[in-house]
Design brief:
Layout: H1 7-10, H2 17-20, H3 23-42, H4 46-56, E1 63-64, E2 73-78, E3 82-87, E4 98-103, E5 108-119, E6 124-132, E7 145-152, E8 158-163, H5 183-187, E9 202-205, H6 219-232, H7 236-239, E10 243-248, E11 253-255, E12 261-264, H8 267-281, E13 292-297, H9 314-325, H10 332-340, E14 343-346, E15 350-351, E16 373-376, E17 380-381, H11 392-404, E18 409-411, E19 421-422, H12 426-430, E20 435-440, E21 442-443, E22 451-454, H13 455-471
The structure holds manganese (II) ion (2 copies).
Amino acid sequence: MKAEGWKDRLVYQRKNFWKTATPREREEAQVFAAGYMKFLNTCKTERETVTHVASLMEKKGFHDIDIVGKADRLFRSARGKNLALAVIGNQPLTDGINLIVSHIDTPRVDLKQNPLSEDSTTELAVLRTHYYGGVKKYQWMSTPLSLHGVVIKDNGETVNISIGEKEKEPVFIMPDLLPHLASREQYSKKIGDAVSASHMQVVFGSMPYEKEAEKLKEAVKLNILYLLHQKYGIVEEDLLSAELQLVPAGKARNAGLDGSLISAYGQDDRVCAYASLQALFSLQPDKLDRTAVIYLADKEEIGSESNTGAKSAFMLDFLADLLKYNQESADSMNLRKTLIKSQIISADVNAAINPNFPEVHEKDNAVHLGFGVSVTKYTGSRGKSMTNDANAEFNSKIIRILNAAGVNWQTGMLGKVDEGGGGTIAKFMAEYGAEVIDCGPGLLGMHSLYELSSKADVYSAYRAYRAFFEKA
Ligand code: MN
Ligand code: MN
């Protein structure tokens, strides 16, 4: 028998979106990407993301669960840093919900609690920093940064800060060492040691305060404090409790001559936050069987810790309230049963195979840019340590749903075995006893200042999440 008749049915082959998509799908992918890029430009931090999403709620018909209680579209934001939204389906919640969890914090450089000083050698005002999450420190040197966050004044008033995104605003630089003088300090060292945390000071000003002729100590620092007080009404002590973050300044850009890619900071994991949000917005409560929930969590990059991370009680409490307002028992037994019957997508990015460093992947088990969303059974490191390992039954169910919906998908591991590794929120969600699987687009240069995504994969993620809510 000739292989031609049955070969394609028997052999697995991942499908390139751009080869298989209809002209309309290509157009939809471009339109979806444009909305996503606007979202990235508005949401540089977890707080800005929560503020932005909360501002959409009224227009999208979502009600604050703490005010309205019962409605078919509900949300709750907490501590300005994490947020959950639900669309109530026709089935009882006790039958299980469909939940998509992503994270809205990103690797960055925070300011230390006592950040401002005048460097005695150079007489420059500098900000001392503390990196957050898995960053390659050298990438943050000599590149324009913007400052975002909140300062709480002693009267309790919150001052929102965002400096460096608008053309007219200043940006901030951590100056790297010139190559001419780097031979001992940097070139002789391992790459991870070439820039240490203490090298990551930001130059914040150079002009001394000189309104009066008096000789002032640390006049450059004093001038900065004077300017901060003039503009924001804050004093140095207010900085000691503030949350201020440095992120790459600037906007998301089209990448590649064909405009098929997106270059932007913070796509891990705002790509999944945006895709799951749009999927949820597209749902019709009366046509939905299982209740659909998305959770945009904070603190994933440092292990889902703190009371705004996925390990906190936030999600359980939200689900308990959903049960209560749906006239179902919210006691701990029913809550547990609901969770065990639930299906959860841990929506996070994966590492796509990089043409510059293909050797850290095994080609057939790596995510390829442009071939759709990755269905990732496990992440972790070494012998599948520290990961959720999705069950074959659930893994297959997700694939069948994506196939039926015509969504481009692929399977992908986080690099070769023993090459390194990493984790997602999946393993914390699995502690509830629910079915959990990782599913999200691949990125090139993950955790760098300019992560690269494919519009095909961003759009495929949206379609995958929508199919999950409607069909799973
Ligand atoms: Mn992530
Ligand atoms: Mn990450």
